[in-house]
Automatic annotation (TrEMBL):
Organism superkingdom: Bacteria
The protein's name in its UniProt record: Broad specificity phosphatase PhoE
Alphabetized PANTHER family for the sequence: BROAD-SPECIFICITY PHOSPHATASE YOR283W-RELATED, PHOSPHOGLYCERATE MUTASE
One term under GO cellular component: cytoplasm
Upper lineage: Bacteria, Bacillati, Actinomycetota, Actinomycetes, Jatrophihabitantales
CDD domains: HP_PGM_like (cd07067)
GO MF annotations in UniProt: phosphatase activity
C-alpha cells in the first residue's frame, strides 16, 4: 500500500493515532490466551515488533501507550527505545474478554462438539461468548482519544497505542461506520500491523492501514 503522508502540524487540529497490534505470541498449546498472564512474544514476534518500531520511529510520535498485557508491553519496548518515549499503560487497550479463554480453540470445531458451549454461540452479533463489540469499540476509541490529546499536549501530532486484534478491528469498524459484527476470517489486522486513525479535532476523518512486518513470516495469531 502507498505510504501515508505526514499530517499537518497540531495547530491545524490534525492528529494521527496509530493502533499497533502486538507481534506473534509464544503459544505452543494453541490456546485462546486472551487476558491470561505469561503469554509473551515468540522470537518471530520480537522481530515483528522491531519491524513495526522501525516504521513508526520514522513518524513524529509524541506519545506511546500500551495494553497492560505482556505481549503488548513487549511490542512497545523497541518503539520506546527507538523514540525515547516512556510507555504509558491504558487498561482500555486490553484484549477482549472471552469465556473460551485458556481453551484450545484453533478452528473452533472442538467447542462446537461440546454441548456445554452451545449457549455461548446463541448471539454471534453481540457476541454472546464475550465482551460486546460495542463496548470494545467504545473503550478503545476512548483510549485513542486520550492518546491523541496527550500527543497534542506534548506539542506533537502523532501517537501510538499497542493493542490487540479484536479491539483494533472494533475501533476501526466503528470509526468508519461499519457494522461491528463481522467474519473474524476477514479481519484486516495482521500481527504487528498498524491501523492509523486520523483525527481532525476530535473526529476521525480517515483510517489507514500498513503492515511494517510484511516481509517477515505471517506467524500465528490465535487468541491475539
Amino acid at each position: 500500500m502507498a505510504a501515508m503522508t505526514s499530517s499537518p502540524p497540531p495547530a491545524a487540529g490534525i492528529v494521527t493515532v496509530h493502533l499497533l497490534r502486538h507481534g506473534e505470541v509464544h503459544n505452543p498449546a494453541g490456546v485462546l490466551y486472551g487476558r491470561l498472564p505469561g503469554f509473551g512474544l515468540s522470537e518471530l514476534g520480537e522481530r515483528q515488533a522491531r519491524a513495526a518500531a522501525d516504521w513508526l520511529a520514522g513518524r513524529d510520535l509524541a506519545h506511546l501507550v500500551a495494553s497492560p498485557l505482556q505481549r503488548a508491553q513487549q511490542t512497545a519496548a523497541p518503539l520506546a527505545e527507538a523514540t525515547g518515549l516512556d510507555i504509558a499503560t491504558d487498561e482500555r487497550l486490553i484484549e477482549a474478554a472471552n469465556v473460551f479463554e485458556g481453551r484450545p480453540v484453533a478452528g473452533g470445531s472442538g467447542l462446537l462438539r461440546d454441548p456445554r458451549m452451545f449457549r455461548y454461540f446463541l448471539n454471534p452479533l453481540r457476541p454472546s461468548w464475550g465482551e460486546p463489540y460495542a463496548e470494545i469499540a467504545a473503550r478503545v476509541l476512548a483510549a485513542a482519544g486520550a492518546a491523541r490529546d496527550a500527543a497534542r499536549a506534548a506539542g506533537g501530532y502523532e501517537a501510538a497505542c499497542v493493542s490487540h486484534q479484536l479491539p483494533i478491528v472494533c475501533a476501526a469498524r466503528r470509526a468508519t461506520g461499519q457494522r461491528l459484527a463481522h467474519d473474524p476470517r476477514k479481519r484486516r489486522c495482521s500481527l504487528a500491523s498498524v491501523t492509523s486513525l486520523v483525527y481532525d479535532g476530535d473526529v476521525v476523518v480517515g483510517v489507514d492501514y500498513h503492515e511494517p512486518a510484511a516481509d517477515l513470516p505471517a506467524g500465528h495469531g490465535a487468541g491475539a
